[in-house]
């Protein structure tokens, strides 16, 4: 009978080719988006960092001006807008603050010497561009930062927030009904009588499905009766995108899932190798 068995990979291919991806979409706040699957590519509409900023507390200046003592013409802290730098001067600047237009170098405050007039003298071994985090170093505007189909985790939330995205389109979860068949099944927590066995499949499946972001909308347990199995399958199909049943698929008199499926539709994959 080996020739009637279907290889697992073939069965998976067969089932995948028979279904279409669900396209139900909703918009959720970023805080509620962890674990959800993105429905659209996410494009950055701004740069990160949004402007050149200082990696150090110190003095921003034009590299070309660095040889002479430089009077301090402005003070810029993080969160403040800066003014264009007056030629021949420097700006007292703090970590995270925007580099004034015209400045191209930052010297740490530990490395400078103040003259008697509070002008700033910088060492001779500075490099142009030092201690500046350039605009767009992390992300460029227009760049796709996350592709549709990505399941969002905490790292994606941080990335989306960094470009100011507050809401995202995500797919609604797949709705699954779990159907356990078998007169012998008992829920954990109940006493186990002769002939009975604990329903472990339900917990295994439900736990796995939930970990995959699937919504288990209902659990049904049926006894080994044809009518009961038929009714349960019909009910389940009404409220679910997918019904997963366990048990009742052998070939004995007590196995009603196969005839019930055939009575309601068609069985297209049967007997796996
Ligand atoms: N002259 C010196 N300057 C600095 C020294 C030093 O030894 N001498 N040490 C540097 C080191 S090391 C560090 S670390 C930083 C620490 O500075 P801050 O604590 O002021 O930096 P942050 O406030 O953490 O900002 C860094 C950067 O990140 C941005 N930021 C801050 N919070 C958020 C947030 N919630 N979301 C997004 N981005 C955030 C902030 O704007 C800055 O660009 O000091 C060096 N300086
Ligand atoms: O070394 Mo800082 O103090 O974390 O970048």
TrEMBL record:
Its cofactor is Mg(2+). Gene3D superfamilies: MoaB/Mog-like domain, Molybdopterin biosynthesis moea protein, domain 2, Molybdopterin biosynthesis moea protein, domain 3. Residues 177-273 form the MoaB/Mog domain. Keywords: Magnesium, Metal-binding, Molybdenum, Molybdenum cofactor biosynthesis, Transferase. The keyword Metal-binding applies. InterPro entries: MoaB/Mog-like_dom_sf (IPR036425), MoaB/Mog_dom (IPR001453), MoeA-like (IPR038987), MoeA_linker/N (IPR005110), MoeA_linker/N_sf (IPR036135). Pfam families: MoCF_biosynth, MoeA_N. It is an enzyme of class 2 (transferase). Pathway: Cofactor biosynthesis; molybdopterin biosynthesis. One of its GO terms (biological process) is Mo-molybdopterin cofactor biosynthetic process. It catalyses: adenylyl-molybdopterin + molybdate = Mo-molybdopterin + AMP + H(+). One of its GO terms (molecular function) is metal ion binding. Its EC number is 2.10.1.1. One of its GO terms (cellular component) is cytosol. Belongs to the MoeA family. Catalyzes the insertion of molybdate into adenylated molybdopterin with the concomitant release of AMP. This is Molybdopterin molybdenumtransferase. It comes from Nitrincola nitratireducens.
């Amino acid at each position: 009978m080996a020739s009637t068995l279907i290889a697992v990979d073939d069965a998976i291919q067969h089932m995948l080719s028979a279904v279409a991806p669900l396209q139900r979409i909703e918009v959720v706040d970023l805080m509620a988006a962890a674990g959800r699957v993105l429905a659209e590519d996410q494009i950055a509409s701004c740069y990160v960092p949004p402007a050149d900023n200082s990696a150090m507390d110190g003095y921003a200046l034009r590299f070309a001006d660095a040889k002479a003592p430089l009077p301090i013409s402005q003070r810029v802290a993080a969160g403040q807008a800066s003014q264009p730098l007056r030629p021949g001067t420097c700006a007292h600047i703090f970590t995270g603050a925007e580099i004034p237009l015209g400045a191209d170098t930052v010297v740490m405050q530990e490395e400078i010497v103040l003259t008697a007039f509070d002008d700033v003298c910088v060492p001779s071994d500075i490099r142009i561009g030092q201690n500046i985090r350039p605009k767009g170093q992390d992300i460029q505007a227009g760049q796709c930062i996350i592709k549709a189909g990505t399941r969002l985790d905490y790292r994606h939330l941080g990335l989306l927030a960094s470009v100011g995205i507050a809401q995202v389109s995500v797919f609604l979860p797949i709705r699954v009904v779990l159907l356990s068949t078998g007169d012998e099944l008992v829920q954990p927590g109940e006493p186990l009588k002769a002939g009975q066995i604990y329903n472990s499949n339900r917990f295994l499946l439900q736990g796995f499905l939930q970990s995959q972001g699937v919504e288990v909308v209902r659990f049904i347990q049926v006894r080994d009766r044809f009518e009961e199995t038929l009714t349960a399958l019909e009910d389940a199909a009404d409220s679910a995108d997918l019904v997963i049943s366990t048990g009742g698929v052998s070939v004995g008199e007590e196995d009603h899932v196969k005839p019930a499926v055939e009575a309601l539709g068609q069985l297209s994959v049967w007997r796996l190798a």
